[in-house]
């Protein structure tokens, strides 16, 4: 058993995709062990995305992730991280396979509904 952090990004919350994404997670046999709606502030964005702080896209990413509430979910299960990554699909929805969350519902690289780690 292992755990994975899943964030339903602001676009997923705004597009009313919370229930759909939670259902997809549960249908794959993963257990939700924690769930919280929060508004990410600048400090949390800097900590969570510390590996990207010096990258050109960070300012836009931080602006988007702090723009409105998101849902933080802790999921647990056998190979939870690997399973969540396969469910999410490629970061770019145009490159994500059909049947994945990003492939079916993502709009852009930034507005791709979900983050997992």
From TrEMBL:
Domain (Nucleoside diphosphate kinase-like): residue spans on this chain: 1-117
Pfam families for the chain: NDK (PF00334)
SUPFAM superfamilies: Nucleoside diphosphate kinase, NDK
InterPro entries tied to this protein: NDK-like_dom, NDK-like_dom_sf, Nucleoside_diP_kinase
Biological-process GO terms, alphabetical: CTP biosynthetic process; GTP biosynthetic process; UTP biosynthetic process
Record's keyword terms, sorted: ATP-binding, Kinase, Magnesium, Metal-binding, Nucleotide metabolism, Nucleotide-binding, Transferase
GO molecular function: ATP binding; metal ion binding; nucleoside diphosphate kinase activity
Gene3D superfamilies to which the protein is assigned, alphabetical: Nucleoside diphosphate kinase-like domain (3.30.70.141)
EC number per UniProt: 2.7.4.6
Required co-factors: Mg(2+)
SMART domains xrefs: NDK (SM00562)
Group of enzyme by EC: transferase
Entry similarity comment: Belongs to the NDK family.
Name of the protein: Nucleoside diphosphate kinase
Organism the protein comes from: marine metagenome
